[in-house]
UniProtKB/TrEMBL annotation:
This is Type II secretion system protein. GO terms for cellular component: plasma membrane. The chain crosses the membrane at residues 109-133. Residues 8-126 form the Type II secretion system protein GspF domain. It is a multi-pass membrane protein.
Length: 143
């Protein structure tokens, strides 16, 4: 969800749309606190607030903090902000991919565990026990 919003922001910036309009569209993509924060920033920018003051609420939220810092640096043009938004989208996708891979690896362990518990006794009874019994039989026979 974050990646789609950041991609939308980058595309809007590259298209030359006004920042408040883009931020409102991006806020509609998010759920929870990031949506409210971006909507508040869009309102402040639309009212003509200074970029430093307008992006202040976004600095307090971890999902929008990096974007807010970049927006304060690039208050005059949107090109730098578009690159930051694209980077944020790539980071969000990588984070989701890493979490999905970790879940898949945990699922593999949980699936293999019952199989191991079933096959281990069979391996011991049918594979190891006859070999040990045969070795003991030879040892006892030679004594």
């Amino acid at each position: 969800m974050l990646a789609a919003g950041w991609d939308l922001l980058a595309a809007g910036m590259r298209a030359g749309l006004p920042v408040p309009v883009i931020l409102r569209a991006v806020a509609a993509e998010f759920d929870g606190a990031p949506a409210g924060v971006l909507d508040e920033v869009a309102r402040l920018l639309a009212l003509g607030a200074d970029a430093v003051a307008a992006w202040e609420p976004a600095l307090r939220h971890p999902d929008t903090e990096e974007l807010a810092r970049a927006a304060r640096r690039t208050a005059r043009t949107g090109t730098g902000l578009a690159d930051v938004a694209a980077d944020l989208a790539a980071d969000a996708r990588a984070s989701v991919g890493a979490r999905a891979q970790a879940h898949a690896q945990r699922a593999t362990v949980w699936v293999a565990l019952p199989l191991g518990l079933c096959f281990l006794p069979a391996f011991l009874c049918l594979g190891v026990l006859p070999v040990v019994a045969g070795m003991l039989n030879r040892i006892v026979a030679t004594w």
